[in-house]
Amino acid sequence: MRVQVVGAGAIGSLFGYFLINAGVDVVFVARGERLKQLKSGLKISGIAEFFEEVEVYKEPVKSWLSLVCVKSYDTVQVAKKLKGLTDVAMTVQNGIGNEDVIAENIPKVIGGITSYAAYVRGGTVVYAGEGETLIGNWKNCSDEVKEVEKMLRKGGMNVRVVENVRELKWKKAAINAVINPLTAILKVKNGELLEVWNSAKIVCEECKLVLEKLGIEMDVEGEVRKIAQLTAENKSSMLQDVEKGKRTEIDAITGKIVEVGKKLGVDVKVNELLYWLVKFMEERKC
Questions:
Q1: pTM for the full model?
Q2: Which member of 103, 228, 251, 277 has the greatest number of CB atoms within 10 A?
Q3: 172 catalytic, yes or no?
Q4: What pLDDT digit, counting tens, does each position of 128-154 carry?
């Protein structure tokens, strides 16, 4: 059963590494500089040292499972390309809405979140932090999700199937909506948010109210503080995008908090302020 990793950046490549370890037939789909790098092989350093020559393509190919790891703003385009080429699609992307976009084009969809940490440096994927991956049936794949769990676990990943994957996606989005825009705007590492906690706390409170309206209970402030401490030396993905002058995933994170919050009658003016500040930074590449 062939698996293709679509969007072979740091996290996609790390998942590919675990699947290769499990003996799975894995191919990678990448573009630009990453495509050139993978043509020289998949290189992993950090927690694990690994090198292997791999198949890599510019466009998606026929496969049983497609692991979608592109930025959220590319999901629509990728989902259309995957239509008719894959039986199952799985995503561990940031933000809200990716699974639903994919489900419009693919008959079976697995949703997921991961806390594994990795980044690409000079063509090598630095495996920076061991975490946990939680996956669940999003659309018509209760059996397939168990098969994927077996594959990843065999490859050495900490993974388990959950029933509440939709709720977990919102919880992670709430955490990201606090950490990502603030670190991107202030240009600080995650741990430095603790020095401006009064500001972070206001964002936490708004996100908590949105979750409550969705029927989700969560100590947003407590979870954000914990993540900021555990990843104190990390730069958020949004900060990294801003530093590189690239488009961020603000629409799928803070944008969704604002959109849903307004629909549910929640005052989300602070989140909305952060949203427009990040959009301004994107446009000015600052």
A1: 0.94
A2: 228
A3: yes
A4: 989 999 999 999 999 999 999 999 999
